[in-house]
């Protein structure tokens, strides 16, 4: 085992001090080829004491050797020969301390290790979620690039209801869907290129981006947001699924299922039927509307006074909701029917009595109005406590003397709060400006986008309305192959 350890531990980039990225890249590849060519019987020596072998390596200094050794233990040795605690400890060490530059050299092995901890119960789910989230934060500090770890994280977090441990990643806006280079050519020297644009996305964990992977990720994101009852963000995530460019005008199962949930979530988020996004093509729109007819019926009744009809429609299609696993969402819509009627009273009243609320609103859960003022007061209290309703409940000795007082939608702010809000807006604008600059630089190298700009300029010169967007002048197929793969 000593000779094997000496070979694996021979790569020490900090001692060598590589300043040229090409030099580091060549040295790392040569080192990887050397340990990869070691005979199987030499590598088997690691099974004598795998724990001691891994403890002797430093994942910060030599991520390549540590990752390759751990991958060998998982992939090529029988499961009963390597204790689970050794594998678990090695995974925690590597995923917590890996070097961003080195890990690109062993990206296939690193990705297999990430997949292994999601399939094999080596660690508690909460620890696994935190580890994968740490990997993404370390590999992609801007959280703006879709990586091969995003889908693993989303699935694990959703299945175990642990999305709060990775909320900053799951809530981040994905801007870049890039493919890895066919041959690795580092754009940054080891350990850091001070001249590189800090806002440019790295390529540490990039994988071939498929439409299915992107659709599944946004769909699972939406499910986690539905679990959180964050209806507004869930609606946005579902819209990202139904508006995703489709090759050959195909409509995937993710899109049809997302559209069903989108109709219901839109009611919960805004109190009205959501409008179909303009990016959805006519063919996709027809398919989505056809597969969501029962949902459209419920959505159409939500904005009417037909509480009994809404309740009847929900009961009529109970089997559909169960088959689509949307039963809880439909129940939430029925519960929200009267809540949104109460919220909409602010358009007419600044203050309204509890009996008046009972007489002017209906419950889709019971069809008729609530029987007592106590039930209405309890409902209003729950809405205020949850933050759904901005108001104050003034409880008097009798129902007639109890009132709901609506708060102004725009309350006065103190000087300090106003200054904080302005500073936050400045930070957001600054972040968006940086992302816009990087995106613009990447677009400017794509001939499809340049052609679009030339066509737009000619149209303006002819005084013709060029009221079409980039997405409508480039075929969906181009977005899925040429442009989309590099954005």
Automatic annotation (TrEMBL):
UniProt GO BP: ubiquitin-dependent protein catabolic process
Residue ranges constituting the COP9 signalosome complex subunit 3 N-terminal helical repeats domain according to the UniProt record: 52-279
Any matching Pfam family: COP9_hel_rpt
Origin superkingdom: Eukaryota
Keywords: Cytoplasm
GO CC entries: COP9 signalosome
Coiled-coil annotated residue ranges, if any: none
Protein name: COP9 signalosome complex subunit 3
Organism, as annotated: Escovopsis weberi
Lineage of source species: Eukaryota, Fungi, Dikarya, Ascomycota, Pezizomycotina
């Amino acid at each position: 085992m000593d000779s094997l350890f000496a070979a694996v531990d021979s790569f020490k980039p900090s001692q060598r001090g590589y300043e040229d990225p090409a030099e580091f890249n060549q040295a790392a590849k040569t080192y990887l080829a050397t340990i990869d060519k070691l005979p199987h019987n030499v590598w088997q020596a690691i099974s004598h004491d795998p724990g001691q072998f891994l403890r002797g390596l430093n994942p910060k200094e030599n991520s390549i050797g540590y990752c390759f050794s751990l991958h060998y233990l998982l992939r090529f040795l029988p499961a009963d020969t390597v204790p689970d605690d050794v594998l678990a400890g090695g995974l925690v060490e590597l995923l917590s301390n890996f070097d961003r530059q080195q890990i690109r050299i062993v990206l296939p092995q690193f990705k297999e290790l990430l997949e292994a901890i999601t399939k094999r119960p080596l660690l508690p789910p909460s620890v696994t979620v935190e580890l994968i989230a740490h990997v993404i934060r370390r590999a992609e500090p801007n959280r703006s690039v879709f990586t091969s770890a995003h889908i693993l994280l989303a699935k694990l977090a959703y299945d175990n209801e642990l999305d709060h441990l990775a909320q900053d990643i799951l809530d981040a806006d994905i801007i870049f869907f890039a493919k890895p280079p066919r041959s690795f050519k580092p754009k940054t020297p080891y350990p850091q290129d001070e001249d590189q644009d800090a806002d440019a996305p790295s390529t540490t964990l990039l994988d071939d981006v498929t439409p299915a992977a992107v659709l599944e990720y946004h769909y699972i994101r939406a499910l986690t947001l539905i679990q959180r009852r964050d209806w507004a963000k869930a609606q946005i995530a579902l819209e990202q699924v139904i508006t995703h460019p489709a090759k050959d005008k195909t409509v995937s199962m993710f899109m049809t299922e997302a559209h069903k949930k989108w109709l219901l979530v839109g009611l919960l988020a805004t109190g009205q039927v959501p409008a179909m996004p303009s990016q959805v093509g006519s063919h996709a729109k027809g398919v989505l509307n056809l597969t969501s007819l029962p949902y459209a019926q419920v959505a159409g009744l939500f904005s009417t006074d037909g509480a009994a009809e809404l309740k009847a429609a929900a009961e009529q299609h109970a089997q559909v909701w169960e088959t689509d696993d949307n039963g809880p969402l439909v129940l939430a819509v029925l519960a929200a029917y009267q809540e949104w009627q109460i919220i909409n009273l602010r358009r007419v009243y600044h203050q309204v009595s509890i009996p008046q609320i009972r007489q002017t609103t209906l419950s889709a859960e019971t069809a008729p109005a609530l029987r007592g003022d106590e039930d209405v007061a309890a409902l209003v209290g729950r809405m205020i406590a949850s933050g759904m309703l901005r108001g104050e409940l003034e409880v008097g000795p009798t129902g007639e003397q109890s009132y709901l007082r609506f708060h102004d939608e725009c309350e006065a702010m103190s000087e300090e709060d106003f200054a904080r809000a302005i500073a936050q807006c400045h930070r957001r604008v600054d972040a968006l400006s940086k992302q816009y600059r990087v995106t613009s630089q990447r677009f400017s190298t794509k001939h499809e986008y340049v052609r679009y700009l030339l066509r737009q300029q000619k149209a303006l010169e002819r005084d013709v309305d060029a009221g079409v967007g980039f997405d409508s002048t480039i075929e969906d197929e181009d977005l899925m192959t040429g442009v989309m793969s590099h954005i």
